[in-house]
Specification:
The protein is an alpha+beta fold and 298 residues long. The protein has 4 helices and 18 strands. A hairpin with a 6-residue loop joins strand 17 and strand 18.
């Protein structure tokens, strides 16, 4: 009788467990805001949704061809229903997987859901000085130019000075500065904007016009100093060669005039002359020359 009383309860418990195991819910992932491609710098929220009941605990993982499957959360919690990717980078691309579980004995797990997140590099804005070399030295104004690398059509521009956005009516590709009001000493940046993806470019590197201007002036000064030095060196070399040639010729003439044979071949009728051959050592040449010294006997 006791067996008959407990059997229906045992049967009901097993039936409930079998029903829960057979009906495993799926995890659905969607991205917010929706979009097929994301660009670097944007923030993406991945939302995991389990249809059926409440009390689910969520966990996230990422799979890439380089790293394989990588866990993004240490444990499953109810607060991890959404996974936020802040300021996405190209390296954030990959397959994101969400799985949920609930209960403890037994633990019921959902079917995993996955979504591939594709991130592309945002176009780079480049800022440059658009004033010619000679105009920098002669004009009282400078012009900056902003360009989006890889594309030049359909862009408008936002300009920044010392981190603050300039008036919106200044949205052209070039921006002209006037001297005398301190504008040369400010740091300028720019960004491209358009009405299709990607809606904006990265912000360019900073540029201080006065630094560029000084570099040009120093470059001109350095070039002039180099040219003047080169001219002086050339003139000096030519002069030194000429002077050296003249001295060599004079020395040759001098030694020619005092050669021993010229002296010794003098008047042979001077019987009172006594000739003596002497040796003179020259330290610099390391050679010996023979001279004839005429000693007049008084």
């Amino acid at each position: 009788m006791r067996l008959c009383e407990t059997f229906p309860w045992t049967y009901f418990t097993a039936l409930v467990y079998f029903s829960q195991s057979a009906d495993i819910p799926n995890a659905d992932i969607r991205q917010n805001p929706p979009g097929p491609v994301w660009f670097s710098g944007e923030t993406v929220t991945l939302e995991c949704d389990i249809r059926g009941g409440s009390g689910w605990r969520y966990s996230w993982a990422k799979r890439t061809t380089q790293t394989g499957l990588q866990s993004l959360t240490h444990q499953s919690t109810e607060a991890q229903k959404n996974y936020i990717v802040q300021s996405v980078k190209v390296s954030d691309s990959g397959e994101y997987i969400c799985q949920a579980e609930r209960g403890s004995d037994p633990v019921i797990q959902s079917q995993p859901g996955s979504l591939y997140l594709s991130v592309s590099a945002r176009p780079q804005a480049a800022l440059s000085l658009d004033t010619g070399f000679l105009q920098i030295l002669t004009k009282d104004s400078l012009t900056l130019r902003c360009e989006v690398e890889g594309s030049s059509v359909g862009w408008s521009y936002t300009w920044y000075a010392d981190g603050s956005q300039l008036p919106e009516d200044q949205d052209g590709q070039t921006f002209t500065l006037r001297s005398g009001n301190g504008s040369y000493h400010r740091e300028y940046r720019c960004r491209g904007n358009r009405t299709e993806e990607p809606f904006y470019s990265t912000i360019s590197n900073g540029l201080v016009p006065n630094n560029i201007r000084l570099q040009h002036i120093c470059g001109v000064s350095g070039s002039l100093v180099f040219i003047i030095s080169l001219v002086l060196i050339t003139v000096c070399v030519k002069y030194c060669r000429k002077s050296s040639g003249q001295r060599s010729k004079e020395e040759e003439t001098f030694y020619f005039e005092v050669r021993s044979e010229d002296v010794c071949a003098g008047d042979t009728d001077q019987t009172s002359a006594i000739y003596e051959e002497i040796s003179h050592a020259t330290e610099t040449a390391g050679a010996q020359e023979h001279a004839c010294s005429l000693v007049v006997q008084l």
